[in-house]
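Structure tokens please, single chain.
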Amino acid sequence: MADRQPVLRGRQAEAERNDRLVLEAARAVVARCGADATVAAIAQEAGVGMGSLYRRYGTKDDLLRHVCTLAMQETVQAGEEALAVADAWAGLAQYVRSCVNRGTGTLGALAGSIDTTPGMWELSKRSRTLLGRLVGRARQAGALRDDVTALDIAWLIETLGRSGPAAPAAEDAVIRQRLTELAIDGLRAAPPESRRRLPGPPPTASHYERRWHAPAGRVS
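Here you go.
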């Protein structure tokens, strides 16, 4: 018999609800404002007081690090679920859709603005390892164009996760879905004569990671 999760009541239930609202709000505000996202904007979006937010997360950076960690955990989960799909192309396409729908790429806007932890680096490398496996098997199956790399897809997911400064409307979600499908179709293998090769060299891991090293002397 499966273990039952304890039912939270009263203040515990309220605290958990507020925490969920804060984390969702933080991701939404970062998607719109990037590293300029403020605690005040996050609290307002979540509908909670600044005091309750600071009691749960001591600093803005603590909150943003936690949100980043959750997003990276989601990319790992998405990668594991996609690798369980028997068809290599279907698995890769599922991964892209899942990450875009979850908004995991929105946190790329924080690169260089917060100090990263060893745990965050470990999750990032685990996520990219899984994506590399997805890309490798899709290419081996002849389904993925041969000039696309795992980091191309990681950057693509980040780009699709961004939004403008205005609060998103229902139409924005539909537009993002349409652009995601266009991007996925662009990843498919096709006869070389029917497409242009991607310009320039592929992105490097060192460039991808370098963004996340906060400048020395930065004040939180």
